[in-house]
Amino acid sequence: NAGVTQTPKFRVLKTGQSMTLLCAQDMNHEYMYWYRQDPGMGLRLIHYSVGEGTTAKGEVPDGYNVSRLKKQNFLLGLESAAPSQTSVYFCASSYDGPTAGTQYFGPGTRLTVL
Amino acid sequence: GDSVTQMEGPVTLSEEAFLTINCTYTATGYPSLFWYVQYPGEGLQLLLKATKADDKGSNKGFEATYRKETTSFHLEKGSVQVSDSAVYFCALSDYWSNSGGSNYKLTFGKGTLLTVNP
Lengths: 114, 118
What we know:
Oligomer: heterodimer
Radius of gyration of chain B: 15 Å
Distance between the termini of chain A: 36 Å
Shape of chain A: globular
Structural class of chain A: mainly beta
Helix content of chain B: under 10%
Structural class of chain B: mainly beta
Distance between the termini of chain B: 41 Å
Strand content of chain A: over 45%
Order of helices and strands of chain B: EEEEEEEEEEEE
Number of strands of chain B: 12
Number of strands of chain A: 11
Order of helices and strands of chain A: EEEEEEEEEEE
Strand content of chain B: over 45%
Largest interface: A-B, 26 and 26 residues
Helix content of chain A: under 10%
Mean pLDDT of chain B: 91
Largest sheet of chain A: 7 strands, mixed
């Protein structure tokens, strides 16, 4: 039981490049989330999904797209990276919604955009 | 919107000292409250939670009580260990909406770095 895994762990991009971050969970959770963590700002929700085939915008969705083609995977895409997207990205999943369910986090992806 | 304010760190303590990390919140409804912990190089883990007023969450010697009258959820531990060194996040669940839809989400505080020295 691996829990929540993220790929890659580190990445350096140049401005304008694109990339996809992969999140996988093996707990059969319905809900999945993408957050970004910036110094002194806590975590902010980028996008989330309440089930396979669904996605929805969070607090800071601009510049990102997501897809949930399979229940266990949640992909975060950056179409044209900008320095402002330098951050640590965390994926999380939960069985229930945020009011009651514990969220399980992956180890994070550290992205630097030059 | 709803928000979480927690004491700024860093907090540095000696082993076996008493720990308090203050957390207050503003919310229009009756949110659930959480403490998450992030150990170096890892993702966040749920430490404890409380879902209604006067509930006490506890885990690994940590505890926090949901105080509706003071809108607080302070984290305490009687005797910290070096292994407790981590960043601690207070969070609440709240209902939000924007042009993209509406749902519940977690709102996190900025985090408090705790360092425990032997």
